[in-house]
C-alpha cells in the first residue's frame, strides 16, 4: 500500500493498495496503520466505521460537520462511485478547491478527507457500497449540508440524480452556509 497526496486539497491523501488477484477473486489490505502514520496521521484517531449502499444515480452530499469538523477515510468497497471533496477550511492554501475521484471496489483505493472539507458522491453502478472510517462520534446537531448543484461549485456529476435524501434536496447554497 502506498500513500499519494491529493494536490487540489491540502492534507488529503489517496491510499492505494495492491490487490492480489487470481482465479478465486482478489485479496487486498484496505487499511495499514504504518502507512497512515507515514503521512502524519494518527491511525488510532479513527473511532467509527460505517457503510452505505446506494444504487446507480443516487447522490449523497455534500456533507460536512461544524465545530471541530470530522476527518474521514472513504472507500468504495463494491461497485463504483464518483467522489467529490471541497476544501472549506478558510486558512487552507487550497480553500474552495474541489477534487473529483472515481473510487471502485476493483481498486479498493481509500481517500483521506481532512476535517473542514465537504464530501459527497454519486453511485455509478447498480450497487455501490461505500465504507467510511471517521475520527469523531457522529452528532446530528453538527451536520451541515450544501446543495450538490450549487453553480458556484459547478460539480460535474456524471449521471442524472435518481434519488437523494430530503435533507440533501433542500440543502442551502455554499454562500448561505458560509455566512
UniProtKB/TrEMBL annotation:
GO biological process: dTDP-rhamnose biosynthetic process; polysaccharide biosynthetic process
MF (Gene Ontology): dTDP-4-dehydrorhamnose 3,5-epimerase activity
Coiled-coil positions: none
Catalytic residues as annotated in Swiss-Prot or TrEMBL: 63 (proton acceptor), 132 (proton donor)
One GO term describing the cellular component: cytosol
Keywords: Isomerase
Pfam families xrefs: dTDP_sugar_isom
Family from the record: Belongs to the dTDP-4-dehydrorhamnose 3,5-epimerase family.
Name of protein: dTDP-4-dehydrorhamnose 3,5-epimerase
Annotated source species: Streptomyces griseoruber
Amino acid at each position: 500500500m502506498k500513500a499519494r497526496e491529493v494536490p487540489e486539497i491540502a492534507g488529503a491523501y489517496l491510499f492505494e493498495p495492491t490487490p492480489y488477484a487470481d482465479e478465486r477473486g482478489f485479496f487486498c489490505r484496505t487499511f495499514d496503520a504504518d502507512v497512515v502514520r507515514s503521512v502524519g496521521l494518527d491511525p488510532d484517531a479513527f473511532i467509527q466505521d460505517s457503510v452505505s449502499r446506494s444504487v446507480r444515480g443516487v447522490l449523497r452530499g455534500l456533507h460536512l460537520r461544524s465545530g471541530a469538523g470530522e476527518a474521514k477515510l472513504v472507500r468504495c468497497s463494491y461497485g463504483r462511485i464518483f467522489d467529490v471533496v471541497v476544501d472549506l477550511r478558510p486558512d487552507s492554501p487550497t480553500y474552495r478547491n474541489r477534487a473529483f475521484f472515481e473510487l471502485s471496489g476493483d481498486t479498493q483505493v481509500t481517500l483521506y478527507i481532512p476535517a473542514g472539507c465537504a464530501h459527497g458522491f454519486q453511485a455509478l453502478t447498480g450497487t455501490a457500497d461505500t465504507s467510511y472510517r471517521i475520527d469523531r462520534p457522529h452528532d446530528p446537531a453538527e451536520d451541515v449540508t450544501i446543495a450538490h448543484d450549487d453553480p458556484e461549485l459547478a460539480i460535474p456529476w456524471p449521471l442524472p440524480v435518481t434519488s437523494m435524501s430530503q435533507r440533501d434536496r433542500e440543502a442551502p447554497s455554499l454562500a448561505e452556509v458560509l455566512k
